[in-house]
Amino acid sequence: MSSKNFLDVDESIIEKNLLIQSNEEQEFEQFVSGFLNPESGKLVKPAPGLCIKLFKTDKSKVFINLCHHAEIPPPDDITREELVEVLDSKDPEKFCIPLSIGIEHLETDKSDVQVPVYDVAVNSEFFNKCQNDDLFQTFIVCATIEGVAEKFKIDISSENPILLKNRKCIGSLQQHRIQQRPPRPSKFKKKPLIQELNSKASLSQLDIHVKPEYRIYVQPEDNPKNIILDVWMPDVLSSQEIDLKCGEDCLLLTTNKQTKYELDICLPYTINQKNVNVTFNTLTKILSVISTIFSSN
């Protein structure tokens, strides 16, 4: 069965609905900001790693504690040669590193002067990889500096950062709340191990199928009456690009973009195919499918 109740939601409609229904506003904000409720996030205490000393453009000192924890999602596993390829490309951001950046806190340095400190946590396995390769270490240090500068809107000189040899952090490391959220999709594509020469079709012409990030939940939790599926497709511009078919206990979603999204899943409940509501939010790029659940009685 094909669902036909598509609706492109513009910003004005969102604002009007949220002003009336405060509960929906809270749920929407929680989903967009964390993909799960903040209460469901996990507080972790990262381990010390590197202490980086930097200077703002006004010559004042800034410190970054580059720390790590296994709960933080790792980036794509790429080789040194692939990283060189990324750095030489015109789009270095196609290799994304998940960073957890804490709030600014003041600490006292060895000169007994209070200085701003920022804790930035990365995946432990990736941190160890950086420790064993100077190129990866330079890359993560630069990415960390850019992340802090962008988040706090401060001018930090990334030239000649000083990695303190005798200390792994300054002050006490903050706790970080690790939440499951839609990760920023990586643009990095590994080259195929086998590639046919003189092929009539170029790689850019081939269909690339991507499984989108999604979440399934029910309402109410103790006695489910409705099932909700949220799918994040950042490359989709409108509902006209989406084809959705719902069965009694399954769902097939495809798009007609050059980079094609494809999601084929089994649902944990039997749904009412005649009562399926589908909306696509053009701002958040989230497709929401809502249906009533058939009672097992």
What is the gyration radius calculated from CA atoms?
23 Å
- Number of E-type strands: 17
Which structural class best describes the helix and strand composition?
A: alpha+beta
The total count of helices amounts to: 5
Shape: elongated
- Average residue-wise pLDDT: 77
What is the straight-line distance between the termini? 24 Å
The fraction of residues in strands falls at 35-45%
| Proportion in helices | 10-25%
SSE string, helix = H, strand = E? EHHEEEHEEEHHEEEEEEEEEE
| Biggest sheet details | 6 strands, mixed
Which runs of at least 5 residues are low in confidence (pLDDT < 50)?
A: 1-5, 9-39, 191-206
Give the quaternary arrangement of the chains: single chain
Family: Belongs to the PIH1 family.
Protein name: PIH1 domain-containing protein 1
Pfam families: PIH1 (PF08190), PIH1_CS (PF18201)
Domain PIH1D1/2/3 CS-like: 220-290
Give a nutshell description of this structure.
Pfam families: PIH1 (PF08190), PIH1_CS (PF18201). The protein is α+β, with helices and mostly antiparallel strands and 297 residues long.
